[in-house]
Every structure is written in structure tokens, then in C-alpha cells.
Specification:
The protein has 208 residues and is an alpha+beta fold. The chain is 53% helix and 12% strand. It contains eight helices and six strands. Bound molecules: zinc ion.
Length: 208
Amino acid sequence: MTEKVEKTDRPEFLFLAGHPCLDFLNTRPLVKGHAVELLGTLEEFLRWLTRAGRIDARAAADAAKKWNDGPEGARVTDRARTFRETLRHMADGLVKSRGVSTEGLAAINFILAENDGNLRLERQGGGFRTRFAARPTNPIILLGSVAEAAADLLSRSDLHLLRRCGNPECVLFFYDTTRNHRRQWCAMGTCGNLMKVRAFRKRHRRAN
Ligand SMILES: [Zn+2]
């Protein structure tokens, strides 16, 4: 019974941001006013990476086997959470038109520099693509794939389309890919409806 309650209380990972870097930021949502940590353990971090398509199931299983019981697993998960908060600060700065801090940029580059490997050229359909193949010996590779997503967001996206949910009690970010760029909510079914009901009530009170 208790287990059932815990399961329903714990939110699933959210993949609604439209960009993997922002989905990563959204792994610490607010539920009923309280921050919920979804990356508490290496196992959870690996599950997120797999669900996000940043690593494949085999790499995740390998990583769990190698690092779950040692100090490396806890260390890299702790770094993932710290990195996420640095990225959150950066995203917040972008939304508020403050630009990207030197610390944010340095944090991404620091991880990219540690992520040892090489660029590979591969066939894709009739053409080619490049892919960074990290050497799978150091747990930093797990964070490397997140740093790559952050670098991709900064270098290839229109940063004016980065948004924070319009519900002031929500901390989720998203990349607005709608045609008229007027997406306001992380999700229509949750924050969108809530804010619409609130706006309706406010209008209704005024009318009376
Ligand atoms: Zn929201």
C-alpha cells in the first residue's frame, strides 16, 4: 500500500521542453510547492539519460554495473545536479535577457574538456553525419552528453524562444517551437488550464 502511494506521488520524467538540455533542467519540478528531485541516484540519472535518448540501454547497463556501487556513481550524479543548477541559472539569465554568464559557459566547457573521446564520421541514409564517441572508461561521459546538449542549445537555437512557464509557481523551461511563438505553458493540461481558470475567476470577480 505504502509503495503504491510513493509511486503515484513521484512524478515521472517530463519530456515536454522541446530540447534535451531544457528537459534536463526540468528534472527538479515543483509539486504542490515543493521541489522534487528526480535525479537522486545514479540509477535515476541513467534512466533519464536513456529515456532522453542521450545514451543507449546497453551503455546504461554497463555504466550501472561499473559505477553503481562505488563512489563514482554518487559523485557523477552529484555533479549532474550541480551542473543542472548552473544551467538553470544560465537559462534564467537568458529568459530575463541577462545573457549567458562566464560561469555557465565555463561549466559547459569544463565538462566537454573532461569528456575524452573523438569525433566519428558515420553514414546516414545517403549522406553522412558526425557523432562524438566518448571513451566509456570514465563516468564523466554521462555528463558529457548533457554538456553537448547545452552547447547545442546555445550554439544552434534561437535563444529568444527559450521560455519559462507562465505559471509563477512552476519552474519548468521550454523551447517555443510553435508557429506563432506564443506558447506560454509547460503543458496545457496542467499549468495552462490552471492559469486559465484563475484568469476566468479574476474576470468573474471583477464583473460582479
Ligand atoms: Zn508549468
